[in-house]
Amino acid sequence: MIVYNTLHKKKEQLIPIKEGEIGMYSCGPTVYNYAHIGNLRTYVFMDILRRALIHEGFRVKSVMNITDVGHLVSDADAGEDKMEKASREQQKSPYEIAAYYTDVFFKDIDSLNIMRPDITPRATEHINGMIDFVRRLVEKGYGYETSDGIYFDIEKFGDYGKLSDLRLEDQKAGARVEVNSEKHNPADFALWKKAPKEHIMQWESPWGMGYPGWHIECSAMSLEYLGEHFDIHTGGVDHIPVHHENEIAQSEALLGHPAVNYWMHGEFMMVDGGKMSKSLGNTYTVSQLKEKGFDPLAFRYFCLNSHYRNKMNFTWDAMESSQVSYRRLLEGALAHKNGDNAPEPAAQDALKAFFEAISDDLNVPKALGVLWVLVKNPHKSREIYDALVKMDAILALDIDKCAEKCDNKADTQPDIPQEALELLQKRSEARRNKNWAESDRLRDLLGEMGYSVVDTKEGAKLVRR
Ligand code: AMP
Ligand code: ZN
């Protein structure tokens, strides 16, 4: 298998450290809010990678952290802890906030057929490992204490910036107005923060009460679960210049050698051509997709149409056409399922081409092209259906459930009052006109009458709540 390694900026043959095994770490969510569909695109990429590795015959150990402390509002180690901010705003303890959003996160990834990682360590349950990590860095001369925390001295680490080609000099020259004058270098980052009294989550440490920096969490937890040297580390591209540079600096400073062989990054999901982010208020969640009648797997299908290293743009129009294509795919698969048993050589050729594309740095769009040619094959054959199901080991689009999913016909609904059916019709019209506000309003009205709207292949239908 060939993968693109951000560290060397090129595609490389994937050679595991231990034959037949892959250790893989993925930066997980900060659980102070719902994951948005941009975040989820990155986890779909992680999932495709994991499935491809399994298909190649590797035993994969996959670890993804849950950040429930220490991720500050600003990447420059300033501002409030995101968890504490949410806790203040929502009048709940940070632990309640974390428990709630972690639970929703797992449900979201389940609905997108993203396999749960083997281990999902929570930062708050690994504080001792982090303190130990920081203590050893201080002992080795890489960490120093200031009045508000322990910082990593990037000047001591000669290789700082190798992942993103940052030059220390440029960093110094372009540094933001520095809020912390005690830092030796503006790009030095917090390993440990001393907690002000009001900080709810705090732990005893050699430097008094405090909490870990965000970057140390990933270094400490990957060390604990994958050891000093593992194969693959994934995340979104926004993590390259700060979070992952800092992880590299901490881990290599402590260990004296690189911890990770292959760094792989997923590109961003944009929205209406611009950046999607929680702070801009233009993010969407899985529940919003569902409320609008979209199958979460139609969103997965949408993600698969772009290569993971290309930006993609989310619009509701694009989402609509993905839903249509996804349904056509299921219908196409069903036709082959109901096909004959005569041999069909196209099936084996397509399987070969499909997996070749996947092995080439996860070229899923190309693989999907191969799949579509096969779906459209005029000879409807069981052999093709079997090939599609094999491809679905990577795509995870529930192709083997095509019969149930296509059989979702709207009935005549004789027991539903005319008034409700008329509202339903108006809603369908509003959706056809892409008038989402109106369609949402009508759905809410129906909700008040005690009906949920379910969008099926045959059109929308009502289900009594
Ligand atoms: P966070 O919860 O903010 O730490 O982000 C979780 C993951 O989502 C990280 O791997 C980010 O790099 C990634 N991410 C954040 N925003 C986007 C986006 N718009 N598109 C794709 N990935 C994103
Ligand atoms: Zn991380």
Explain what the structure shows.
This protein has 16 helices and 15 strands. The chain has helices at residues 37-55, 82-90, 94-111, 127-139, 168-173, 214-226, 240-255, 286-291, 296-304, 316-337, 345-359, 364-375, 382-395, 402-406, 418-432, 436-448; strands at residues 2-5, 10-13, 21-26, 59-64, 143-146, 149-152, 189-194, 210-212, 230-236, 260-266, 269-271, 274-275, 312-314, 451-456, 459-464. A four-stranded parallel β-sheet has the order 4-3-9-10, with helices on both faces. The chain has a four-stranded antiparallel β-sheet with strand order 5-6-7-8. A hairpin with a 4-residue loop joins β1 (2-5) and β2. The longest helix is centred in the C-terminal third of the chain and has 22 residues, at 316-337. It starts with a strand and ends with a strand. The structure holds adenosine monophosphate (AMP) and zinc ion. Zinc ion is lined by residues 27, 218, 243.
Write out key terms for the chains shown:
single chain; 465 residues; alpha/beta; four-stranded parallel beta sheet; four-stranded antiparallel beta sheet; binds zinc ion
Summarize the structure.
The chain is an alpha/beta fold and 465 residues long.
Mean pLDDT: 91
Structure summary, number of beta strands: 15
Radius of gyration: 25 Å
Task: Give the termini distance in whole angstroms.
Answer: 49 Å
Low-confidence stretches: none
β content, as a range? Answer: 15-25%
Report the helical percentage. 40-55%
- Label the structural class: alpha/beta
Number of helices: 16
Strand neighbour order, sheet with most strands = 4-3-9-10
- Small molecules (ligands, ions, cofactors) in the structure: adenosine monophosphate, zinc ion
Q: Let me know the largest β-sheet.
A: 4 strands, parallel
State the shape.
globular
